[in-house]
Write a structure and sequence with these properties.
The protein is α/β, with parallel strands linked by helices. It has 8 helices and 10 strands. The strands form 2 sheets. It has a 6-stranded mixed sheet, with helices on both faces. It has a 4-stranded antiparallel sheet with strand order 2-1-4-5, covered by helices on one side. The longest helix is centred in the C-terminal third of the chain and has 18 residues.
Length: 224
Amino acid sequence: MTDLETRHLSREVAGRVLVQDVSVQVLAGEILAIVGPSGAGKSSFLRLLNRLDEPTSGTVLLKSQDYRSITPRELRRRVGMVMQTAYLLPGTIAANIAFGPHQRGKMLAPAQIEGLLERVGLPGLADRDVSNLSGGEAQRVALARTLANDPEVLLLDEPTSALDEASVRGIEELILGIVRERRMTCLIVTHNHAQAERLAGRTIVMQAGRLAAIGPTEQVLHAG
C-alpha cells in the first residue's frame, strides 16, 4: 500500500527551480533514501512533503488524500520531521517531548514520556535540561519528540551529519528499530551513500531539482 505519493511536485523561488516535476510513490513501512550532490534539491523536496514550504505546482497524497485538504498542523503531526540539527526548546527533555501533544490539548503522562526516552536510549533523563546534552543525545530527544506525535511518516534531513561515528551508528539502529516496530514510512536525505545502503531498500537520486534515478539502493548507487 502506498503511504505517501508525490505528483509532479515542483517548487520555484524567484525564478530559480528548486524541485522540478518529481513524482514518486513510497510504500507503507518503507525507508527511502534521497541522495544527490549539494544543491540538488534534496532538502527542498523533503520540506515540501509536510508543507514547511509550499509547492509551486503538483501535490502530495498522504494515504491517497490530497494533503492540501489537511490542516498544516495536523499534516505536520502525521508527517513528522527531524532536522540535521536538533532544534530543542529551552527547558527539560520532558517539556520538549510533551510539547507536540500539549499543542493539541493532550497531556502525556510521566510514564509515557519515560517510555519514549527508554525507546531512544535515554532512560531516566526526563528532568535533564536540554542545554546539557551532547549532539547525539539531542538528536535522540528530537526523535522522541517527533514520535510523541504518533506520526505515520518520518522525514529525516541528514539526521546524523553533525555526529561522530559512534553516535551515527546508534541513531541508525534507532531509526531502523522504530520504523520496523511502528511500521512507519520513512524518507531520509543523506549525503552518505554507505548510510543509504545500511538503511534504505530503495533510493532516489536527485540532480538539479529533478528525479534522476530511483530503484533498489545498491543498484542505483552502483549504476555505471
